[in-house]
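<given_protein>
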Amino acid sequence: MYIVIVGSTVFAISFANLLHNKDNEKVVLVVKKKDDAIRITEEIGVNVVNADATKPEVLDELELEKCDVFIAASELDKDNLISAMYAKESGAKKVFACVDSFDIEGMMKKIGIVPINADKFAANAVELMIKRPVVSELVNIGDGQFDMIEVDVALTNFEGKTLGGLDNIDYNPIAVYSKGEFNFSKKVRLKKTDVLLLVVPSDKKKDVVKKIINPFKRIKSLVSKVSKK
């Protein structure tokens, strides 16, 4: 799978880092600033192209007609939209663009670009949607009906329970993320260090988080982080 990621944001770097060591993944990260490109190359070793991804001549060099996934994840909505539209026109199979503006999401969906919010969708969740098309259809990302959220098992009372045992009318547990891999088995038992991925109705997300997060464990976790600083 050939994946092009644009930007030097935390989301872009996290996603590139998540994928670049995996088998059968060719990942290219396009970074505008030279200093950022050098730093990211040294930190995670991903293939970095130091260039402005809003310029057609730069994007043409990336052979986007062969691109399986293109993700525009820079800091500016405008730049993300420009590069994503060009990638779509150039033949990239699946195109994502990080945007904060709700006003342009409808337009993006109409031209075949999937809008994502980097604050809302963590890198693991987006990887899951790319690798598992059925999950992408289930979540219907950008359509406003469902969201995918990540929950640290350590903050819940789910440790020791099976994934299948968590079925609930308000949310659908679909996977466990552990040691860099997804586990979809309903029989897998959740460990304290695992991350649980849930599909929830968008209008119930806050209620679900409040329901499953143990407030005492959250406070304990926050205190632990503060004490380490």
Observations:
- DSSP finds nine helices and ten strands in the chain.
